[in-house]
Structures are given as structure tokens and as C-alpha cells.
Write a structure and sequence with these properties.
The chain has 4 helices and 4 strands; from the N terminus they run E-H-E-H-H-E-H-E. With 135 residues, it is α/β, with parallel strands linked by helices. Strands 2-1-3-4 form a 4-stranded parallel β-sheet, sandwiched between helices. The longest helix has 15 residues. Helix content is 26%, strand content 16%. The N and C termini lie far apart (40 Å). Bound molecules: 4-nitrophenyl phosphate (4NP). 4-nitrophenyl phosphate (4NP) binds next to loops.
């Protein structure tokens, strides 16, 4: 049985679709498609059905990665569907936990940056309103 991983941000149009598609790229490179399955979702409903943000899609394209998928909202059933639920920032983490069906599910939810080894950041910054490197 494949391990199922869900990446979660606020809108599901910038950070989590990037994480999902980058992860899929790495999975394909390593021929692990039958072992790991990824998806992404947003805690908010604003962008349901929308494609990834064009600025994020352009940035990903620069790395040779196409951002596929449409935004959907995280819901409580995702606690059943996934083995790991990875939050981009602490507010995402709190919003996910608020929907937890019970304590037995809570260990599935982690901060994505807990798994990052190449930088010290503990959260993935929200890029939507543009930062120092906003396009
Ligand atoms: P994401 O970025 O959570 O990385 O998809 C955002 C997308 C939309 C909004 C905020 C963050 N928004 O406020 O609409």
C-alpha cells in the first residue's frame, strides 16, 4: 500500500500545489510512484476549483516543473484518507487540528519544515501578497 501524503496551505494555489508537484517530480525521478501518493488542499474556500497561481506556476516552470491540479478545501475526511498531513505554516496547522476527528489522528499532522534540512525556516512564508522576491 502506498504512503499517502497531503500538503496543506491556506488557498491551495501557491505553497501546497508547489509542494505536491515538486514531490511528485522527485517521486517520478526515483520511480517511487507505486510507493508514495501525494495531494494538496487549502484550509480556506476562497480559491476552490482554481488552478495554481500564475506567479507560482511561472516560478515552478523555471525549475522544469508544471504545477497541475485545482484547488480544493481540506476537510475532516482527509484525516482518514492520508497517512501524513503536512502544514505549511502554524496557522494552517491550527486550522487542520481544529477539524481533527480525535487524538488518534493528531500525530499525522506535522509541519512540512520539520522535514527540511537545507534551511532553518520553520514555516513556508505565505507568498500570496508578494514578498522580497514576489513577482
Ligand atoms: P497559499 O497562498 O496558501 O500558499 O495558496 C495564498 C493564496 C491565497 C490567499 C492567501 C494565501 N488569499 O488570501 O486569497
Amino acid at each position: 500500500m502506498a504512503i499517502r501524503v497531503l500538503f496543506v496551505c491556506l488557498g491551495n494555489i501557491c505553497r501546497s500545489p508547489s509542494a505536491e508537484n515538486i514531490m511528485n517530480h522527485l517521486i517520478q525521478q526515483r520511480q517511487l510512484d507505486d510507493q508514495v501518493v501525494c495531494d494538496s488542499a487549502g484550509t480556506a474556500s476562497y480559491h476552490i476549483g482554481n488552478p495554481p497561481d500564475c506567479r507560482m506556476a511561472a516560478a515552478a516552470k523555471g525549475y522544469g516543473i508544471e504545477l497541475k491540479g485545482r484547488a480544493r478545501q481540506f476537510d475532516a475526511a482527509d484525516f482518514e484518507r492520508f497517512d501524513w498531513i503536512l502544514a505549511m505554516d502554524r496557522q494552517n496547522y491550527r486550522d487542520i487540528m481544529a477539524l481533527s476527528p480525535g487524538a488518534a489522528y493528531n500525530d499525522k499532522v506535522r509541519m512540512m519544515c520539520d522535514f527540511c534540512r537545507t534551511h532553518p525556516d520553520q514555516e513556508v512564508p505565505d507568498p500570496y501578497y508578494g514578498g522580497a522576491r514576489g513577482l
